[in-house]
Design a protein that fits this description.
OB fold (Dihydrolipoamide Acetyltransferase, E2P); six-stranded antiparallel β-barrel; single chain; 19 strands
């Protein structure tokens, strides 16, 4: 009898202890990293890298050969050098003009000679006309007399010959004048050519801008041949610049001229610059089978803090959602690893979602859907959300039962205090 009573008492003790253990085991004691649901702006963008370029670059070269003899001065009165500010027509450099000056002097003398030949021809023509008049009068008298006792046949023939010769001489003088006149334009052209080459010895700035590169020194000889030697590189108006951005062919269709652009540059880690999308050039570059289009971004550089040829990290704004509910992308990637973490009222739906494979993309709805988990006491509760645009950190929520202030799960707190998505190869971390 006593043994039976002891057995009943022990069974009751062990049964109650087992039930209590089951209740404790079924109660989760996990730690999570969480964030409150809030509203804000979400901007979808395209990331790319580009190079800052002056809006216009002028490469100043030499059209004649010779040695550099001198440099001009900039707007500050200093010799032309790197970073010099120049104005249109300002002297940049001088090339030795000895040979070209001599050629100009020769051409000028040849022009004067051609003009003198015209004067001489006109004088010869006047003389020839005078002789023609005399020969014409003599010939007229000879014709009136005719061959007779007063005028021999020999004299008659002589007057006729003199008249014909005088006419021919006039024609020759007129021809020489025409020839002399035709030589004047040729002499002028040679003088213009020689003068132009002489002028080319003076290198002037064609634009207002800044000297980006000086490629010659005094005494250096430049040789002009098929390729014009480059002397100076001038950036025109560095207060207006462009970024030449290489955009992947998959993203370039979303780049719209006139859209807003933000970018950063090394050296200004805490400053975000703004620009406007310009042209999309239609001559792509192919690198390792990757097609990249060059997009021009117009930038205002009034303070001139941006230097040419710096690397810019660019964000093209594709779309924007203002004052929308948003969730971190990390929350969309997290899922509980144990049903003990899920609220009992939602476990059946959670198990069914785990067992069902993803829908066929061909038949799935076009809207993007996701699931986030909200703290529900000691448990978590799944909430379906319809997703909008994303900025790669947060995603806009278009339709959901989420409310501002809901505490959504970003990840588990694992050993070591780190938080993040659950590692499937680690057992659930319980707080002891």
């Amino acid at each position: 009898m006593r043994i039976a009573i002891v057995i009943v008492v022990l069974a009751a003790v062990f049964g109650g202890g087992f039930a209590a253990y089951e209740r404790i085991a079924d109660r989760p004691n996990f730690e999570y990293r969480t964030e409150l649901v809030h509203r804000g702006d979400v901007v979808s963008s395209i990331s790319a890298t580009g190079t800052l370029e002056p809006e216009e670059v002028v490469d100043v070269g030499a059209q004649v050969a010779g040695a550099i003899t001198a440099f001009g001065t900039d707007t500050n009165g200093k010799l032309i050098d790197y970073n010099s500010k120049v104005l249109p027509g300002m002297l940049l450099a001088k090339i030795d003009d000895t040979v070209y000056k001599a050629d100009a002097d020769v051409a000028k003398a040849q022009l004067e000679q051609a003009e003198t030949a015209i004067d001489k021809g006109e004088a010869d023509l006047a003389q020839a006309k005078a002789k023609l008049l005399q020969a014409e009068n003599d010939w007229k008298r000879a014709r009136d007399l005719g061959p007779s006792d007063a005028l021999s046949q020999n004299d008659y023939d002589m007057y006729q010959s003199n008249y014909e010769t005088a006419k021919a001489t006039v024609a020759i003088a007129e021809s020489e004048i025409r020839q002399a006149k035709s030589g004047v334009p040729l002499a002028k052209a040679e003088l213009d050519k020689a003068q132009r080459n002489l002028d080319y010895c003076t290198i002037t700035s064609p634009v207002k801008g800044t000297i980006l590169d000086r490629r010659v020194n005094i005494g250096q000889t430049v040789v002009s041949s098929l390729n014009t030697p480059s002397l100076f590189l001038i950036g025109r108006d560095l207060t207006r610049m462009q970024i030449w951005v290489s955009v992947n062919e998959a993203d370039v269709e979303n780049v719209v001229p006139g859209s807003q652009v933000t970018f950063t540059c090394d050296g200004f880690p805490n400053r975000v610059f703004k620009g406007i999308t310009g042209r999309v050039r239609l001559n792509p570059n192919m690198t390792q089978n990757v097609v990249l289009y060059t997009v021009e971004v117009n930038v205002n550089n009034d303070d001139e803090v941006l230097k040419p040829f710096k690397t810019a990290k660019v964000q093209f704004e594709v779309s924007r959602a203002n004052n929308v509910m948003q969730v971190p992308n990390m929350a969309l990637r997290w899922t509980p690893m144990s049903e003990l973490q899920v609220s009992p009222s939602a476990r059946a739906a959670w198990k069914q979602a785990q067992d069902n494979p993803p829908a066929d993309p061909a038949t799935a709805p076009k809207e993007r859907h996701g699931t986030v988990y909200v703290k529900d006491g000691p448990y978590v509760r799944p909430v379906d959300v319809t997703l909008g645009i994303t900025d790669r950190i947060n995603t806009a929520v278009v339709n959901s039962t989420l409310k501002e202030g809901d505490e959504i799960i970003l990840g588990d707190v694992v050993d070591g205090g780190e938080a993040g998505p659950k590692n499937p190869f680690l057992p659930p971390a319980r707080k002891r």
